[in-house]
């Protein structure tokens, strides 16, 4: 998420991405994704739930999408030095990891969730979805306000006194 957010913020604010930091961070994510994948598969074998993957239903398809696009593909991408040095490819890999986490949450709380004493499956109401999207929008606006109005992002080659008075796209 840090790589994802940093690359979006850099692009949005017209700054050059800090690839020397993001590349090192990206190289640390690959082993963590490998450990996560090992635990996820190990858990399936311990609980013997892998047999449900042979069924063609929403839960098995969503699980396959989560593991394939949210873990395996970004894991392979982040093992490549070409990906770690390219802002575009690093953004794609980090986006896939964020997508995988999102799909995991959807799988756990919507697809596979069955409330006790209920005959229907659960789906969030319009109000719940609206509140969630509203909070995300509020966080993005608050982040932009803070970054534009306070010296949060340092600019290379500037002294600390100059950093407090930098402009981003003409906004002081």
Order of helices and strands: HHHHHHH
Q: Biggest sheet, open or closed, and with what strands and sense? A: none
CA(first)-CA(last) distance:
28 Å
Mean pLDDT equals: 85
SS strand fraction: under 5%
How many domains is the backbone divided into?
A: 2
Rg calculated over all Cα atoms: 20 Å
Structural class: mainly alpha
What is the total tally of β strands? Answer: 0
Query: How many DSSP H or I helices?
Result: 7
What fraction, in percent, of the residue positions are helical?
Answer: 55-70%
The rough form would be described as flat
- Which stretches of 5+ consecutive residues score pLDDT under 50? 159-166
Structure description:
There is one protein chain. This protein is mainly alpha-helical and 172 residues long. It has two domains: 2-123, no CATH class; 137-172, no CATH class. Helices cover 69% and strands 0% of the residues. It is built from seven helices and no strands. The protein has helices at 2-12, 19-47, 58-78, 81-85, 87-111, 126-149, 160-163. The chain is flat, with a radius of gyration of 20 Å. It starts with a helix and ends in a 9-residue tail after the last helix. Mean pLDDT is 85; it is low at 159-166.
Keywords:
172 residues, mainly alpha, 7 helices
List the helices and strands and how they pair.
Layout: H1 2-12, H2 19-47, H3 58-78, H4 81-85, H5 87-111, H6 126-149, H7 160-163
Helix pairs in contact: 1-5, 2-3, 3-5
């Amino acid at each position: 998420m840090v790589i994802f957010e940093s690359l979006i913020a850099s692009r949005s604010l017209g700054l050059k991405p800090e690839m020397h930091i993001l590349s090192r961070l990206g190289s640390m994510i690959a082993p963590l994704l490998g450990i996560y994948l090992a635990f996820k598969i190990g858990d399936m074998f311990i609980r013997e739930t892998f047999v449900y993957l042979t069924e063609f239903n929403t839960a098995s398809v969503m699980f396959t999408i989560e593991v394939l696009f949210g873990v395996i593909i970004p894991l392979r991408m982040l093992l490549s030095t070409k990906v770690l040095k390219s802002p575009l490819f690093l953004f794609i890999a980090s986006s896939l990891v964020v997508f995988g986490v999102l799909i995991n949450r959807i799988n756990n709380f919507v697809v596979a969730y069955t409330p006790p004493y209920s005959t229907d499956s659960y789906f969030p109401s319009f109000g719940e979805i609206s509140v969630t999207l509203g909070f995300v929008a509020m966080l993005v606006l608050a982040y932009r306000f803070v970054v534009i109005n306070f010296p949060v992002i340092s600019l290379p080659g500037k002294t600390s006194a100059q950093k407090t008075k930098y402009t981003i796209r003409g906004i002081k």
